[in-house]
Amino acid sequence: METKGRPSVALAFYVLPCSLFSKVISYFCAMDKNVIETLRKLTGKRDARVLIVPHISPDGDAAGACSALWQVMDKLGVECHLMTCDYFPEYLKWLTRIPDSVSYQQHPIRCKRWLQEADVLFMLDHNTMAREGDLEPFTREYKGNVVMIDHHPDPDEVTLCVSDTRVSSTCELLYDVITSTWGKEIIDTDIANALYTGISTDTGGLNHNSSRPETYLVIARLLEAGLDKAYVHEELYQKNTLSRLRLTGNCLLNKLEVDENFPVAIIPVTLQELEQYHYKDGDLEGLVNIPLSVESVSVSVQVTERKDRVKLSFRSKGDIPVNLWAKTHFNGGGHLNAAGGQLQLPIEEVVKKLKETSGWFFGEIIKMKLSSR
Ligand SMILES: [Mn+2]
Question: What are the structural domain ranges in the chain?
Answer without folding.
Answer: 14-237, 243-371
